[in-house]
Each structure stands twice: as structure tokens, then as C-alpha cells.
Design goal:
The complex is a heterodimer of chains A (392) and B (259).
Chain A (H helix, E strand, L loop, with lengths): L1 H12 L3 E15 L11 E14 L5 E12 L7 E12 L3 E8 L32 E10 L2 E8 L26 E2 L9 E10 L2 E11 L4 E6 L5 E7 L1 E13 L2 E11 L5 E15 L4 E12 L11 E10 L7 E9 L5 E11 L3 E11 L15 E9 L1
Parallel strand pairs in A: 8-12
Antiparallel strand pairs in A: 1-2, 1-21, 2-3, 3-4, 4-5, 5-6, 6-7, 7-9, 9-10, 10-13, 11-12, 13-14, 14-15, 15-16, 16-17, 17-18, 18-19, 19-20, 20-21
Chain B lengths: L1 H18 L2 H16 L4 E11 L5 E12 L5 E9 L7 E5 L7 E6 L4 E5 L15 H4 L7 E11 L2 E10 L6 E9 L5 E8 L4 E13 L3 E11 L5 E11 L10 H6 L2
The chains are: A mainly beta (392), B alpha+beta (259).
Chain lengths: 392, 259
Amino acid sequence: MYIGVTLSTLIVAGTAAADWSGSVALEYRGFTQTPLDDEQHRHYFSVAAQPEYVYALPDSKDQLRFVPFVRVDQYDSERSHADIRELSWTQVGDSHEWRIGIGKVFWGVTESQHLVDIVNQTDLVENSDGEDKLGQPMVNLALIRDWGTVDLFVLPYFRERTFAGAEGRLRWQPRVDTEQAVYESSRGRDHVDYAARWAKSWSGIDLGLSYFSGTSRDPRLTLGSDAGGNLVLVPHYELIHQAGLDLAAVQGAWLWKLEAIYRSGIDPAYFASTAGFEYTLSGAFDSGVDLGLLAEYLYDDRGDDSPSPFQDDAFAGVRLAFNDAASSELLFGIVQDLTSQARMFNLEASRRLGDQWKLSVEARAVAAAPADDPVFPIRRDDYVQLELARYF
Amino acid sequence: MLRRLLLLLLSLGACSAAAQTPEEKGLAIATAAERRDDGFGDFTANMEMILKNRHAEESRRKLRVLEREVPADGDKGLTLFDEPADVKGTALLTFSHKVNDDDQWLYLPALKRVKRISSANKSGSFMGSEFSYEDIGSQEIDKYRYKYLRDEPCDGKPCFVIERYPVSPNSGYTRQVVWLDQAHYRTWKVEYYDRKQSLLKTLTFNGYQQYLGKHWRAAELFMQNHQSGKSTLLKWSDYKFRVGLKDADFNEASLKRQR
């Protein structure tokens, strides 16, 4: 009945908007050092495409989005992968919003890591920074009220984290065998997860409180062996509960940020947080350039037992926005482990070429990583990445 | 006796006219200009920006703008980026305030991330154009101090020339000189003086049209940067007033779903 009504609306009005856009990109990754494993390579080329289709009914209350993604990598069979980033129907009411299908949600405010963000699984083969995500099947109801917005999620299907294949770089030694993934829940990836977030903004302040109950997106890795008898790492997905807080406060040129989580259901339960600021000097050096200075402290109360490399670390970064016609940008950051002395460098820069092309450069490096630091397996995986993308 | 009284009255009148200082007259003109645009309710419009560098090479941006008047405070605005293709889906949400810094959030569609941005960044360029955030933002009365300079024709009409001084220490300007016509208080020209007091940019307005029998909007704004030789032409089209935008059209959820 409902579909019949909307379809007839569509035919009568005839102004439903359908729109294709997206991008195709050629990527090169060059590693500066010889690999730890003979199977790995120094130079990798890959191509990726992410088209995006949006269909909006003329009432502008209903919207369909479809965003498939595919990458083909020269060597890494796991990095050659396809995903449905989004395939969802959104219906907008006066003070609520329904979204059903495969979607993507981001929670959080900090720059160096994203502790609170938990709804979508990380597509780790795409980028080691963890900012690329796999599409998550969901039913989402958002209640938008004066006292804030409450987002309720039912997440009926679990997505496993992606890991580089035997021939790929930026991986553990030995490699992670995703075929053998083990679940704490007897229902495996069919376990239904739940999540909720309340968020409210005041003048100068954004606050979010979130809760998640279900299968952890971060697997614990244990030693095992594959069918050929080779050593591999096996991912274990545990059931967890996680309470999260994210806070941003702006005060003139200062932007203060805090993220904190408490995760239980696993042993030990733990607390972790990221806190810091971004200070923006606009029109720095008497030019149109905006200079952002970033600093954050990363804490995890499990200390050296934490599987995360960020348990007692300081992050310092510089962001340059050139404000030119090519939208040139640069972000450089260092994460210094205050306990193990390991150091990570990260550079991201991009500019538009003409109206439809964009060139991006990315470089990451690790220094002084001792054998017990979680970044030790990628100690020889310093790389420079060039990407040329065409947008349409 | 009668003559003396008349003289007294005349001199009193002259006195009260003289009592309006150039500062008061400047503020009165700016207030009158704002009053005339009160009650627009809400509007949507399309904007095209044509950026030209000193070699006359062009690049274009396309945006859509939604705005809702908030009588007690500033206005609520949503700016949606359509072109160039790599920024498509990016959106900027602004709650302007009469006195305090505006609240601003930027939505980055690739990460699905809504980022609070510091609105102290007033002098930064908007999308690489010659318009800065403070040029493009809502021009609330209390964001400036004023001074009336003189009467002078502009665009062939009798005009007021006033000077205004940004209150915010983060402004990129020391002063702006504004030409408004005396009949409708429409702005025809603005000269922007930088922190070193030299002329930085000139903005000229063209193609005014009246909407709802009251609200004047220019179809073209042309910003010439005298120091860099660059310019930006901003073309407005498809103005629709009172389309029924609600507060619910200006929140985090609406930022994410706009296309």
C-alpha cells in the first residue's frame, strides 16, 4: 500500500531526482625497505572504484542510496576486494528518521584515533589508519528532539575485519588467517548487536554518550596454523559492552576534544581515552593559509598488556589548509609512545587538478619499535602512496 | 517675540540634528537596512562561483543555500556543495549569533563525519574564492561599529556612504566602506581594508530583484582582490522564499542526508 502511494506520487510529480556520482582511482604504494617475508613485494599498483547512486522521491522525505566499492590490487589477494559501502533507504519524519539497509555511521571527535566509533567494521586492507569502513547492515531510528538526538541501532549481521593477504604489506607476522575466525557467540556472525547514542549541541559544545552491546569489532589474535601447517594468526571476536563519551568544545580559535570508552565483557575490562585540542591560526604567515596545531594524549589503562599501540602516547600534528582554488591540504603528525619510545610518522596531502582530478600523497613510517610493541610487525613497512582519482 | 521663538526653535532643531553624531547616523542607516529585510522567513537559492586567477584561468563551484530566519538571534544556514565533484556532498551548517561567535559544523561525506569547526576563522577563504567566511556569513548589526561618511551617487542613484569596523579581533579587516542607495537601503559596493589599512578588495552588486514585494536580492556579486589580481563572480539563481523550512532542516541529521 505504502509503496503504491509513493510510486503514484512519483509518476504524477515526475520530479524524483536520480543522481550518479563517484570516483575511480589509480594508486601506487612504494615501500622503502625490503619486506620481512619473501612473499611480500616492494611496489604495488591497484585500481579502485566507488560509484554512488542516490534516488530521492519528490516529497524529499524518502531517499535511496547505493554505494558499491571495488579494489583490484596487483599482488594482495585480500586487498583485491569488493564491498557494499551503502545500500539504504532513509525516510525523514518531522522529528524522527528511519534508515534501513547497509549504512555507515561515524562517532567521535579526535584526530589520532577513533575510540568511540564502533558501529562499522574497519576495512583495514584499505588503509592502516582505520578510517575506511565496511558497510554495516542496520535498522536505525533517530529521534530528533529538543533535548537531543537519540540514535537507536539494531545490527543484525557482523562484518569481519579485513587483513592483508600473504603477499600484502602492512600485516602481522605471521599473517592473519581470516578463514579461521572464531566467535564467542554461538550464533557467530549472525549474533544481533545493539547500539545507541544520545547527542546534543549547545552553543560552542557538542556532547555524545553512546552504548554498544555485541560482537567486538577488534579481534584478539592468537597463534594457530593453516591447512598447510604454516603458522598463522587467528582472529577471535568476543562479546563486549562498551560505553562511550565524545565531547567537543570550541572557544575562539581553540577546539577541545575528548573521547573516552569503558569496555567490559572481556578480561580485563578497561578504560581508554584520547584528549587534546586543535588550535587554528587563520591567515598564518600573512597569507591565506590556515595553520592548525594539534596535540592529543592517548591512554589505555591496560598499559603494556594492551593490544593497541596507543596506551601511553602523545600525538602532535600540523594541519595546513592553503585555501587555494585547488583546495590544497596537508596534515603531518607524529605519535610518540611515552613508554616504549616507538614513534609513528604520518603525512597526508592532497590537491585538485583541474575540476575533476585529485592527487593525494600519503606517507607513513615507524621508528624505534621494540619487539614487544604492537607496531613491531610493521617496522619495515614504511611507505609512500600516490593516488590519482577522477571524480564524476 | 514670535521671531525670537521661531529662531529658538530653529536653533534647537539644528542642535538636535547636529546631536546625531556620524557614528549614530551610520548605525541608524545600517539598522534601517536590516529592518527592511526583516521577516523573510526562509529561502533557498542556488549559487555558482566563478574563480579567476591573475592569468584569467577559471574554476567553478556550485552550491545550494538554505536559510531560515531566527528573530531572537542570528539565522540558521545550510550550504550544500555540488561541484567540483570531489567535494560533492560536503555541507556546512551555520548558526549565526548576533554578538557571539557563530556555531559551525562541516560534514565530510567520505568519512560520514560531522566536524565542529572554529568560527574564529573568519578571514579564511571560502572554497578558495576571494570571499572569506566573514564576507559570506550573515551580516548581523552588532558585528560592526559604524560611522556615516557622506552622501554620494552610486549606480546612478543617491547613496549613503558609511564606514563599518568589525568588532571581532579575528576579522581580517580594519574597516569596510559601504555604499547603500537611499531609496531601498540596498548595498551596491563594499571596499575592504586589510589589517595594514590598505585596500584589499572591492565587492560590487548587480541585478537586484525584489521578492515577496519586499526583500531585495542581487543576482551577481563580484569580488575583485586588488592585491592578488584574483576575482570571484558569485551568481545567485532560483531564489525561493517562504518554502517552509523548519528548525529540523538545520541539524546534524539534515547535514548528512542532503544531496
